[in-house]
Every structure is written in structure tokens, then in C-alpha cells.
Write a structure and sequence with these properties.
Low-confidence stretches: none
Largest sheet: 3 strands, parallel
Number of strands: 3
Structural class: mainly alpha
CATH architecture: 3-Layer(aba) Sandwich
Strand content: 5-15%
CATH topology: Rossmann fold
Mean pLDDT: 94
Shape: globular
CATH superfamily: NAD(P)-binding Rossmann-like Domain
Strand order of the largest sheet: 1-2-3
CATH class: Alpha Beta
Order of helices and strands: HEHEHHHEH
Number of domains: 1
Length: 162
């Protein structure tokens, strides 16, 4: 329960609180507008084993995104970005342990375990994720209100077909 509480505080309570603080200032802008972007994941769409708390917080973060949009009344937008595995230090650090635990090579961990349900068999780069946020914050995304940018290499679609 301690780990559950910690993850809830970091992954759901903090974004809720920060959004609440930011929205006050956004409403004070000349036009009362602003945009809040949240990083969710495929786990805001599907639940996988051994990730109960992560699944709960990501679904909750997607709900927070939609709630912000509802309360923003068209002036304060919000959106989320849902990806599969991103080539970050945290994700890369997990590969050797997974390989040893499963008795397979690190390449097999990436291809078969991490990217197994994805139609694209390589992790997304952090810059690709950043580009999604740049779009979401831009004037080109003015109709992205409470929506989710699901860029998962087809993972959610493939997972749902099993």
C-alpha cells in the first residue's frame, strides 16, 4: 500500500494539483486560455498484468485530462499523449534484468517482450514524443480538447485482438 500511495501521489495527485494551480493563472490571461498536456501511456487504454497501480494511475490521468477539458469550457484545452515503450534511460535499464530473468537476449526482450504486441518493433525516441506534445500545444491542435494522441505502433489494437 505504501508503493500504491506513492505512485498515486506522483502520477495522479501531482498532475491534478499542478493543473489546478495552472488553470487559475490561465484564466487570468487576456483571453482566458491555456493548454495542459499529460503523458499517459498505452496503459491508459489497456491493462496488462503486474502493473495494476500503473494501469490505475494512467487511466486516472486520462480521466483528469478529460475533466480539465470539461472545466476549461473551450478556453483551457487539455490533451494526453499515449505511447508504448519509449527509449528512455528507465526503459533501457530494465532490459538486462528482463533478459536474465527470462533467459533470452536483450534484443529479444525489446523485440518480443516489450514490443511484442506492437506492429513496430522498435521503441519510440523521446524526440518523437516531444513532437507530439509540440503539436498538442500548437495552434494547429485547437480542436484537441480532452483528446488523447495514441501513438503506440498499433500495440493497443493488436492487444485487443488477442
Amino acid at each position: 500500500m505504501e508503493k500504491y500511495d506513492l505512485m498515486q501521489r506522483l502520477m495522479l495527485r501531482a498532475p491534478f494539483y499542478l493543473s489546478k494551480l495552472c488553470m487559475v493563472h490561465m484564466r487570468k490571461n487576456d483571453d482566458g486560455s491555456g493548454v495542459i498536456g499529460n503523458m499517459t501511456s498505452i496503459h491508459a487504454h489497456i491493462c496488462t498484468v503486474n502493473k495494476s497501480v500503473y494501469n490505475i494511475t494512467k487511466f486516472g490521468l486520462r480521466a483528469l485530462t478529460q475533466s480539465i477539458a470539461a472545466e476549461g469550457e473551450g478556453k483551457i484545452r487539455s490533451f494526453s499523449v499515449s505511447t508504448g515503450f519509449v527509449k528512455t534511460a528507465l526503459a533501457l535499464k530494465q532490459i538486462p534484468a528482463q533478459a536474465q530473468q527470462r533467459g533470452i537476449t536483450p534484443d529479444e526482450v525489446v523485440r518480443d517482450v516489450m514490443m511484442g504486441n506492437s506492429r513496430i518493433k522498435e521503441m519510440m525516441s523521446p524526440i518523437e514524443v516531444a513532437n507530439l506534445f509540440m503539436f498538442g500545444f500548437s495552434r494547429h491542435a485547437r480542436y484537441l480538447i480532452g483528446g488523447d494522441l495514441l501513438f503506440d505502433g498499433g500495440m493497443v489494437q493488436t492487444y485487443a485482438q488477442k
